[in-house]
Amino acid sequence: MTPSTEHTILPLDAGDIHICQDGPCDAPALLLIHGSAASTTSWDLLVPLLTASHHVIRIDLLGHGRSAKPADRQGYAVPRQGRTVAAALDRLGITRVTAVGHSSGGYTATALTEHRPDLVGGLALVNTGPGLHAYTAPDALAIDPAQWPPTDAQIRQLAATGFTEGYELPRHMVDEVRETPLHAFAGTLQASTAYLAEGPVPDRLKHLGKPLHVIYGDLDRRWSPASFEDYRAVPDAAITAIPDTGHSPILEVPDRTAELLLAFTKLHV
After folding, report:
1. Longest C-alpha distance within the chain, in Å?
2. From CA 158, how far away is CA 148, in angstroms rounded?
3. Residue 61: how many CA atoms within 13 Å on its side-chain side?
4. What are the two backbone dihedrals, phi and then psi, of residue 37, each rounded to the nearest 5 degrees?
5. Which residue, of 39, 181, 231, 235, is most buried by count of CB atoms within 10 Å of its CB?
6. pLDDT at 203
7. 100 pLDDT exceeds 90?
């Protein structure tokens, strides 16, 4: 976290939600939504590059970080996550955001836009797979529920396809996975699959009329890099490949990712 980060715990109907805010409150709002088994900390390298011109808002989704972790797996359904994010923004008095989602966080950003198009002025999706057909990673590491939490080695093996080969997963991210209850971890993954089974992301977005920038690392080992072209179905979508980068540009190449996000917001805010 940056030294000036303002932390808030919002008591909402769905459970307590942890929010981080950085940058001037009167600047255009930029909402950052993390992926599965991550948290607000996955954006730590990016935030300082954005706060000169934006009010940066990060949220721990239900089941992650310092937010509530409901026992009912249905609580992690993507549409519910989108409604919860909308409720948090309303509570903060935020009326308009550019929503940025990394990986499965892009599904929540999409669900937020579907639920409350008045709140979202534009979307940037970072390595957000467009549909189930595009998933290329091997099956998730089988972990016996009786052996949860997993070992460091299991966590690093589980996360390996989320980065270019040889990338060293930060220690705090290993710890975050270990501290996640099994029901929250499994519920989140199942929710993403269910959301995509109901309809691919480009089909959900193409009628909403929102500016869209799709950013992806061309060495993604979870989603077929060619599949990001599916987003061409969204009128006027911009699609940018970052060379020699894996599934997590926000951690692997934060400078380049920030440059692309700032260029997008300059055009559409």
Report:
1. 51
2. 13
3. 36
4. 60, 25
5. 39
6. 98
7. yes
Which tokens is 128 given? 């957000």
Q: Residue 152 is which amino acid? A: D
pLDDT tens-digit profile of 162-177?
Answer: 999 999 999 999 999 9
Q: What is the 3-state secondary structure (H, E, C) of the chain?
A: CCCCCEEEEEEECCEEEEEEEECCCCCCEEEEECCCCCCHHHHCCCHHHCCCCCEEEEECCCCCCCCCCCCCHHHHCHHHHHHHHHHHHHHHCCCCEEEEEECCHHHHHHHHHHHCCCCEEEEEEECCCCCHHHECCCCCCCCCHHHCCCCHHHHHHHHHHHCCCCCCCCHHHHHHHHHCCHHHHHHHHHHHHHHHHHCCHHHHHCCCCCCEEEEEECCCCCECHHHHHHHHHCCCCEEEEECCCCCCHHHHCHHHHHHHHHHHHHHHC
Q: What does CATH list as the number for 6-268?
A: 3.40.50.1820
Query: Over 60: is that where the pLDDT of 140 sits?
Result: no
Q: At what angle do helices 78-92 and 105-115 cross, to 10 degrees?
A: 70
Which two three-digit tokens encode residue 129?
Answer: 């797979």
Give the bridge partners for 82, in sequence order. none
Kindly list the distances between the CA atom of residue 63 and the CA atoms of 13, 17, 85, 218, in Å, as whole numbers in the listed order: 14, 10, 13, 29
Per-residue pLDDT of 202-240, as tens digits, reads 999 999 999 999 999 999 999 999 999 999 999 999 999
Spatial distance between the Cα atoms of 104 and 126, rounded to a whole number of angstroms: 9
Q: Which amino acid is at 263?
A: A
